[in-house]
Each structure stands twice: as structure tokens, then as C-alpha cells.
Specification:
This protein has seven helices and nine strands, in the order βββαααββαβαβαβαβ. With 251 residues, the protein is of the alpha+beta class. InterPro entries: GvpL/GvpF.
């Protein structure tokens, strides 16, 4: 088949085949390209969409980007079940197999060092959200009868908000410290934009943790025990993922 080469990840050789029905970006099944004892997982993509200019335009198209990212992630997820992949950036494309081999040779030392560090490890994501508003008082607020009453009520509301955010940040800090002590490595990401994530509440922790696959169950239990620990805090756990945050190639 003709077309450009879309590269999902680099990994060590693996014996277990990927699912026969798995399709990648642009609907083409991924295949393994072996070179210098490393494997690049690639598929064919059409020039009309993935050459430099059309790809740049497509990356501004949210629907196209979402579909492509979903297909890309599907291949990474499948690889994670059979090996430890080093994910490459979304939209990593080369002219042909020779271009992929040249890329492997140029970065071979880094690839091997990173794969050694990530072998047998997965990434877990933990987010903490605080409620957008303080818990309602069981008694309705009295209507202000004067300017002084109004200012007093406003000061009380402000103090309530400040106390809630302080409580949220303290909880998130303690949780991150606890999980970081268990994990081999951790990364703090910027809080998520609620407009983009559609999540309710204020994101006060957005972190990733590198955990040996063999210890993942214990890590999950540790996170689960914190849920409901502090009223008004919502803890969300995602994973296990390929170690995007620790690969130096996050999309």
C-alpha cells in the first residue's frame, strides 16, 4: 500500500500480536517496522490529509482532530496490553519506511534509555475537583435589611469561599504527597479548563503517577480510600495508560 507512514510509538520487540480487527489512523491497521532491535508501530495514511500543509489545516478542525486522536489512542492502548510503548506525538508522519528508520537511528540512544526506565510501568491519572460553591447552609440566608447587613453577609460569603479553597488545596496537596511517595515518579499538570473538560467543580489537582504494573492494584486501592474523605472533594482516577507524561513525547 502506498502513502505516508504514521508512527504511533516505539517499543521493544514483542511476541504477542495485536488484535486482528484493530485499525489505526485513517482506518489502516498498524504494523511493526523492526530496525536496530527496536520496533516502530506504523500505518499508512494518505498524503492528501497528512502531508505538511493539509495536516496543519486538519489540526485546526476539532472533529477531525478528535477522530484522529481516538484512533491514535486506540493503537497505544492495544500496545499497552502487550508491551511497554513509548508514545510519539499525535501526527508524527514520515515519507516512507526509510524515513522512520532514519528517525530511529537518530534517537536510538534516547529511545533505549527511556524504554529501560518505563519497562513494566504504567501511568495513572488522578484529578481532584472542589465544588464550585460552598455547601448550602441548612438555614436560608436572611434578607439584608441595611447596607451594613449586606456588607456583613458578603464578607461571610467571601470567607466561606476562601475556607473552601484552602481546604481543597490542602487536601490535594496531602493526596499528591501520599501518592508521589508510593509511585516511582509523578508529574503535576496545569488544572484543566472546565470549558474544555466539561467537568463540574474547580480542578485543584491534575497529576500523573508512574507506577509498576505489578503494584497498580495497591495504587488504585490507595486512591479509592480517599474518595469521600473530605466533603465537597471529588477524586477521579484514570488509567492505566502508556506513560505519556514520562516519555518526553506527550501529545
Amino acid at each position: 500500500m502506498t502513502g505516508l507512514r504514521y508512527v504511533y510509538a516505539v517499543c521493544r520487540p514483542f511476541g504477542t500480536p495485536l488484535q486482528s480487527q484493530l485499525t489505526g489512523v485513517a482506518g489502516d491497521p498498524p504494523r511493526a517496522l523492526n530496525h536496530h532491535g527496536l520496533v516502530a508501530v506504523v500505518s499508512h495514511v494518505p498524503e492528501r490529509d497528512f502531508a505538511e500543509e493539509p495536516l496543519r489545516a486538519h489540526l485546526e478542525d476539532l472533529d477531525w482532530l478528535t477522530e484522529t486522536a481516538r484512533a491514535h489512542q486506540g493503537v497505544i492502548d492495544a500496545l499497552t496490553t502487550v508491551t511497554t510503548p513509548l508514545p510519539l506525538r499525535l501526527g508524527t508522519v514520515f515519507r516512507d519506511d526509510s524515513g522512520v528508520r532514519t528517525m530511529i537511528e537518530a534517537r536510538e540512544e534516547d529511545f533505549r534509555r527511556t524504554l529501560e526506565r518505563l519497562e513494566g510501568r504504567v501511568e495513572w491519572g488522578v484529578k481532584v475537583y472542589a465544588e464550585s460553591e460552598p455547601q448550602e447552609s441548612p438555614r436560608p440566608a436572611q434578607k439584608a435589611t441595611s447596607g451594613r447587613d449586606y456588607l456583613r453577609q458578603r464578607r461571610m460569603q467571601t470567607r466561606s469561599h476562601e475556607e473552601m479553597w484552602q481546604k481543597a488545596e490542602s487536601f490535594a496537596s496531602r493526596l499528591h504527597e501520599r501518592l508521589s511517595a508510593f509511585a516511582e515518579d509523578s508529574r503535576l499538570h496545569p488544572p484543566q479548563n472546565p470549558t474544555l473538560s466539561k467537568a463540574t467543580g474547580r480542578n485543584v489537582l491534575n497529576a500523573a503517577y508512574l507506577v509498576p504494573r505489578a503494584h497498580s492494584e495497591e495504587f488504585v486501592e490507595m486512591v479509592d480510600r480517599t474518595k469521600g474523605e473530605v466533603p465537597g472533594m471529588r477524586v477521579e482516577l484514570t488509567g492505566p495508560w502508556a506513560a505519556y507524561s514520562f516519555a518526553g513525547e506527550a501529545t
